[in-house]
Design goal:
four-stranded antiparallel β-sheet; seven-stranded mixed β-sheet; mainly beta
Length: about 130
């Protein structure tokens, strides 16, 4: 069974840092584009960051550029999101996702490109 499992969410103070992990199992995702999305209460699930299968290319939402960094370790079948300078607007459930392996070497920021999703991890940033 294919699973993506996020971890690392916590309650942190504004200005703090947090590192999220997404561990994949059931198959290798080393050739799949992957991404992080987030969803706040009453809001749609929004794009945060994406990374190409080889880790060469990455993209970010404007709201997190310069503060967040996505990375991956294909040997560990894991993707990470380093979050710095957190503010209360970053409060949300964070989800990792994987797109099908089609040989595409770039990134996607559209939800409908991703077919595998984790269960989410809660990040709460206090003022």
């Amino acid at each position: 069974q294919v699973q993506l499992v996020e971890s690392g969410g916590a309650l942190v103070q504004a200005g703090g840092s947090l590192r999220l992990s997404c561990a994949a199992s059931g198959r290798s995702f080393s050739s799949n584009p992957m991404a992080w999305f987030r969803q706040a209460p009453g809001k749609e699930r929004d794009f945060v960051a994406a990374i190409s299968w080889a880790g060469i290319s990455s993209s970010y939402a404007d709201s997190v550029k310069g503060r967040f960094a996505i990375s991956r370790d294909n040997a560990k079948n894991t993707v990470y999101l380093q979050m710095n300078s957190l503010n209360p607007e970053d409060t949300a459930v964070y989800y990792c996702a994987a797109a099908p392996n089609t040989g595409y070497i770039g990134t996607y920021n559209l939800k409908n490109k991703y077919t595998y999703w984790g269960q989410g991890t809660q990040v709460t940033v206090s003022s």
